[in-house]
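Ticket reopened. Same input as before:
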Amino acid sequence: MTNLIVRNSIRFVFLVLFQVLILNNINLGGYTNPYLYVYFILLLPFFTPRWLLLILAFLLGISIDLFTNTYGLNAAATVLMAFCRPYVIRAISREPEEDLGNQPSLRLEGFTWFFSYSVILILIHHTALFYLEIFRFTEFFQTLLRVLTSTAFTLVLVFISELLFYSRGNTKR
Amino acid sequence: MRNLFLFFRKHYFIFLFLFLEVLSLILFFRNNTFQNAVIFDWTSGISGGINALYRNISEYFSLKETNLILGEENALLHARMPEAIYLADKAILTRNDTLYQSEYRFINARVISNTTNKRNNYLMINKGSLQGVEPHMGVIIGDKIVGQVVNVSQHFSWVLSLLHKESKISARFLKNNQMISVEWLGGDYRTCVVKEIPKHLHVEPGDTVVTSGNSEVFPNGILIGVIDQLHVYKDENFNTATVTLLTDFNALGYVEVVVDMFREEKEQLKASFEEL
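Engineering reply: fixed in the latest deploy. New output:
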């Protein structure tokens, strides 16, 4: 349990720093920004209390906001995403939650499950994020394009991390 | 009460979510001016529409009062109409010499170009010889001085502004009729000077300077300005003073050209005198 808290805390700090120091400076074609920090929310254990889920999402978002001077923007998107997480898990799982294991992972849950899980949540997060930032519907399709390309980019990074760090051996935590 | 508490406990997830989401959005909109401006635009559009509707309806309740005010205003305006004033003037004029009435005629004109920032300033007006404008006629705005016509074409006239090296206006103090002459030395278009004020004259700041009526250019008593500062020179015979002009030369719209009906007669008389 302590191990789990330490592991998640380290991941929290690492993802925030990785996001603000490296990924925020990546901007493909003026459209595409990866937001890998949501990977933290994706990987939280299944048995995380729901209130903790929301609080952690808020803290994560506000930490990113502190570095990018957009107070509340990332927090709002991340809290929305965390709110949807339990419902998404329930919607896409065939077996009861107890049988899913400790935390969502590509290896344990299979490609289809993990893919739909991350696509839906990342899409929710990015849609909220980009539309809040633009805040007008006149550029609707331009923003939609940004949402879709950024989602694809973030998804690729999530899968790469999944394959790099959680592919074997360390699923029992 | 207990049920309410249970309700909150049962749905705490949604309430916590709403709380955090609203908190984030408040933070976001408070600190980001663009989003703030858009929100203000929406809300003010809505509130503005409601206010306008309210105003439209509430206006009907004060129609009676508004009518009364408008009626009073109408009466006031009627009293100011030229007809009303003319009638009043006529009553006085009949007691005076009838010639007095027709000594000056005025041609209304619009200023179409004007300068104030040069040493020698001119202005152009949209009336010319076809409308009866001739060189040497004076130009005034209301009861204040502007300049003198120097050049006339069929439809337009050049007016030498008071703000000119050549303009030297024959003037007098309103309070004691003492003759002086007003010049402009360049610089600020709001002030000019009076040179050669005799030492014995008691002049104070605030004294009004008007035209003398001695030349054929301006009628008697056209306002020029107000004494601003008196300069006393101990070893000279005359004092000088700066005058704040009453005319705003930078904002001339419609002016009047002064037509002296007896100009020819006066000039003939002067010429015959000089021949002697």
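Chain B is about 35% helix and 30% strand. Chain B touches chain A at residues 12-13, 16-17, 20-21, 23-32, 34-35, 38 (CB under 8 Å). Please confirm and we'll close it.
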